[in-house]
């Protein structure tokens, strides 16, 4: 898809403009965000965000604190619906379906989205019960299927060999890095269409962070990943495309290598070179 035909390059002094130069190679568009605006009460947090996400690729959202990247991520699975005084205008389409349509089933939508948060949040139950929890909630009780799903998800999260002999032990006894990979296993157990990650390594040490980054690289292709990160080096390591946000606006969105080496926007250049942020 040639995004240049959607939004031409214009001077970045106009924050409403966006520069697109996307890496392709996925399996087509899975997410379309069109003129998305969001207010918390009277304060506008997102301004006319427009972007597409290609299936099977990793897309990173970067920008300084308070720029709207986590807000945008939480719009994708409608977690922001729980905030009082929220107003949203525009649309987000998942496989061409408008997730903000009045008839949309929000619970069903969230089942199509895996979510991994900043801090590991394992449930106070066994490792096995943590992984199969989404399936049990859906009423799945076939023990063979649940056991196979647990192993598949833990292998997918590069955790199986570390925990296969203690699946009945509490997940709370795992290390922080293992807990975060367990949360990823739980997120992919239900085979989601999109995996959303909100600064998944911010609470981890460098060794655990490296393991999660390796895992993201392994999941790429099998899953569409959208990751919010404050770590620009991490974005450069794990993502195919990167979106730079500033003051609630999408300033530049494109191939990660281009964003970090030859961005078209001066504002992007200033951020990735450390002049502000």
Number of distinct helices: 10
Average pLDDT, all residues:
90
The main sheet orders its strands as 1-11-10-4-9-8-7
Name the structural class.
Answer: alpha/beta
Distance between the first and last residues' Cα:
31 Å
DSSP helix fraction? 25-40%
Radius of gyration: 19 Å
Strand percentage: 25-35%
Largest sheet entry: 7 strands, mixed
Q: Care to describe what's here?
A:
With about 280 residues, this protein is an alpha/beta fold. About 35% of the residues lie in helices and about 25% in strands. It contains 10 helices and 11 strands. The strands form 2 sheets. Strands 1-11-10-4-9-8-7 form a 7-stranded mixed β-sheet, sandwiched between helices. The chain has a 4-stranded antiparallel β-sheet with strand order 3-2-5-6, covered by helices on one side. Strand 2 and strand 3 form a beta hairpin. The radius of gyration is 19 Å and the shape is globular. The N terminus is likely disordered.
What topology does this entry show?
Elements: E1 19-21, E2 29-40, E3 43-54, E4 58-62, H1 69-76, E5 86-94, E6 97-98, H2 106-111, E7 113-116, H3 127-137, H4 143-156, H5 160-163, H6 176-189, E8 194-198, H7 206-219, E9 224-228, H8 232-238, E10 241-246, E11 249-255, H9 256-261, H10 266-272
Parallel strand pairs: 1-11, 4-9, 4-10, 7-8, 8-9
Antiparallel strand pairs: 2-3, 2-5, 5-6, 10-11
Helix pairs in contact: 3-4, 3-6, 4-6, 6-7
């Amino acid at each position: 898809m040639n995004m240049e035909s959607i939004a031409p390059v214009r001077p970045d002094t106009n924050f409403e403009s966006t520069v697109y130069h996307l890496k392709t190679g996925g399996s087509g568009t899975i997410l379309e965000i069109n003129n998305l605006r969001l207010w918390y009460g009277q304060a506008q947090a997102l301004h006319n965000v427009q972007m597409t996400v290609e299936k099977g690729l990793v897309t990173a959202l970067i920008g300084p604190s308070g720029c709207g990247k986590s807000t945008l991520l939480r719009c994708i699975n409608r977690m922001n619906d729980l905030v009082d005084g929220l107003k949203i205008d525009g649309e987000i389409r998942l496989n061409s379906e408008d997730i903000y349509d009045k008839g949309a089933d929000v619970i069903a939508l969230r089942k199509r989205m895996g979510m991994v948060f900043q801090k590991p949040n394992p449930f106070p139950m066994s490792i096995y019960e943590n992984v199969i929890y989404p399936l049990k909630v859906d009423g799945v009780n076939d023990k063979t299927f649940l056991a196979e799903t647990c192993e598949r998800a833990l292998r997918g999260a590069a955790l199986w060999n570390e925990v296969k002999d203690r699946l009945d032990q509490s997940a709370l006894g795992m290390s922080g890095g293992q807990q975060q990979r367990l949360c990823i296993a739980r997120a992919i157990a239900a085979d989601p269409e999109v995996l959303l990650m909100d600064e998944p390594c911010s609470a981890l040490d460098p060794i655990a962070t490296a393991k999660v980054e390796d895992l993201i690289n392994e999941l790429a292709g099998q899953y569409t990943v959208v990751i919010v990160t404050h770590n620009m080096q991490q974005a450069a390591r794990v993502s195919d495309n990167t979106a730079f946000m500033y003051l609630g606006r999408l300033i530049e969105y494109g191939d990660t290598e281009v964003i970090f080496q030859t961005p078209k926007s001066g504002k992007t250049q200033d951020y990735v070179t450390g002049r502000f942020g």
